Amino acid sequence: MTVFDHPLLDFVEGEYACTEARGHTVYFSEPFADFLTSVRAAGLTPVVIARHDAWWTFAARYYLDLFGGWALVRTGDLFVDPVGAKTGETVSELLEARVHAVLPSQREPELLQAVVSVSVHHAATEQTVLGRLVDVVSGELGQAMPAAWGAHEPATLAWDTATLTAHSRAQMPEVRTFITGGGGALQGIHRVERTGGGVLETFTAVTPIAALDAPTEMVAERATHALTVIAEAFSMPLFGSVTVIPGWRDGRVPAFGTQPIAVPVAMLIGPRAVRALGVDLTVLAARFDVSLAGRQRIPSLVAGFSDPDVPPWRQADELARAFGTDAIARAVAASGGV
């Protein structure tokens, strides 16, 4: 039996190391980060149990998922899995055999959030500045600009790309930082990783993009424009995707409630993947909202799922089918070989 102890630990049940977050908001604090790292180092699975009326920040959920953890809720003597509202009297029972429960509902979503993930590749030179990707994504896609960053929440360092670049260089070969702006409206994780051919920079974030009742085609056009600007701004974009979900202005999500379904609105395929796909733009353009962007010799492909008469998921699926399974496999391999 594994013996494990930590200041945040409330109990260990089998393979699950459990901590109860008793506050109204679950943050990715320094103790929280240490808990996740220590639990995994002990060979256990982290479980965070929140109040049913608690809210999670983007960073807290991101890192819990990254460490393979579970987000649960306590109500009375029961533990609840908010996905599907399943309950159990013990954590093990809940995670291994689930039943239904009913809990108080949370307030209604306030707006549409963009969930964006974009990767670009840089040469490893003194002239490379990191963080500009964050500025471009925020300025073109969202309604909030980055204001602060740090290793965990609360972010206490004023946003500055030169300082972020110096920090990333010192922490290589891989470093993640939390970025926020607009009073929490923008929340994201910035990742930098050294590769065999340079530096890989990825920004994954949520940010407000439109009103709840905004037409899907309008949102798709805005997302498509943002990815086009990214393709023009960086010499070697790798991949980008934008989906939208109902959300809240402060960027948090409720610990309990119906999990929103993400709707794809736009995607970016970088030059290496485009070359591997071997696409015929003339043929694709006759069926889909696609265009080339970036450098003329080795362009990127930007696709928007903006047809109001066809569900966005179907548009994305039909585009993938047009590429073909083998071509997509080649594209993934090409994008990964950085």
Short account of what is shown:
The protein is an alpha+beta fold. It has ten helices and 20 strands.
Number of structural units classed as domains: 2
CA gyration radius, whole angstroms: 21 Å
Shape: globular
* Parts with pLDDT < 50 across at least 5 consecutive residues: 98-102
What structural class is derived from the secondary structure elements? alpha+beta
Distance between the termini: 42 Å
Physical arrangement of strands within the biggest beta sheet: 12-11-13-14-15-10-16-18-20-19
Could you give the order of the helices and strands? EEEHEEHEEEHEEHEEHEEEHEEEHHEEHH
> Whole-number average pLDDT?
86
* Alpha plus pi helix count: 10
Helix proportion range: 25-40%
InterPro entries: DUF6177 (IPR046175)
Pfam families: DUF6177
Key words describing this protein structure:
alpha+beta; 338 residues; seven-stranded mixed sheet; 10 helices; ten-stranded antiparallel sheet
Can you put this structure into words, describing what you see?
The protein is an alpha+beta fold. The chain has two domains: 11-100, no CATH class; 111-336, no CATH class. It has helices at residues 30-41, 58-66, 91-96, 132-141, 161-171, 216-233, 271-277, 281-287, 312-323, 325-336; strands at residues 11-13, 16-21, 25-26, 45-51, 55-56, 70-75, 78-81, 86-88, 99-100, 111-122, 148-150, 157-158, 174-181, 186-195, 198-210, 237-247, 253-254, 263-269, 289-293, 300-304. The strands form three sheets. A ten-stranded antiparallel β-sheet has the order 12-11-13-14-15-10-16-18-20-19, sandwiched between helices. Helix 4 (132-141) runs antiparallel to helix 6 and helix 7 (271-277) packs antiparallel against helix 10.
